[in-house]
Automatic annotation (TrEMBL):
This is Rrf2 family transcriptional regulator. SUPFAM superfamilies: Winged helix' DNA-binding domain. One of its GO terms (cellular component) is cytosol. It comes from the Bacteria. GO terms for molecular function: DNA-binding transcription factor activity. It comes from [Ruminococcus] lactaris. It holds the Pfam family Rrf2. Gene3D superfamilies: Winged helix-like DNA-binding domain superfamily/Winged helix DNA-binding domain. InterPro entries: ArsR-like_HTH, Tscrpt_reg_Rrf2, WH-like_DNA-bd_sf, WH_DNA-bd_sf.
Length: 131
């Protein structure tokens, strides 16, 4: 599994906002982080919905963090950007299995353990840790 580029950009944006500790314009984010400027609003819209970033209007407008860096985990960012966090279809909430075997399948049980390890690892790393 590979995270999409939007997720990579989102991590960079949150990290940069945490470093700067001030409102940063979309053009500065784009320039410094090498992200297309028209892509910034797409990413920050999802980060706003996840209550990670806030948009500030006006002449001194831009983006700032809504939470302290120690309260934002990689899991928070990744899960706000990716369509799913599940490593296999059978781990989705509907538990779909073409064999109808999720209740007794050993592969499902193993993947469930891997999923938990993956999520726990992302939850254990905060933006403050990266700084």
């Amino acid at each position: 599994m590979q995270l999409n580029i939007t997720t990579d950009y989102a991590i960079r944006i949150v990290y940069y906002l945490a470093l700067k500790e001030e409102t940063i314009t979309a053009s500065e984010l784009a320039s410094v982080l090498k992200i297309p400027v028209n892509y910034i609003s797409k990413i920050t819209k999802k980060l706003k919905a996840a209550e990670i970033v806030q948009a500030c209007e006006g002449i001194k407008g831009g983006y700032a963090l809504m939470k302290k860096p120690g309260m934002i985990s990689l899991f928070d960012i990744v899960s706000s950007m990716e369509v799913t966090m599940k490593i296999n279809r059978c781990l989705e909430p509907d538990g779909f299995c073409s064999r109808n075997a999720t209740d007794y399948c050993n592969v499902h049980k193993a993947l469930l353990n891997v999923q938990k390890t993956y999520e726990d690892a992302l939850k254990s790393v905060t933006i403050a840790d990266l700084i």
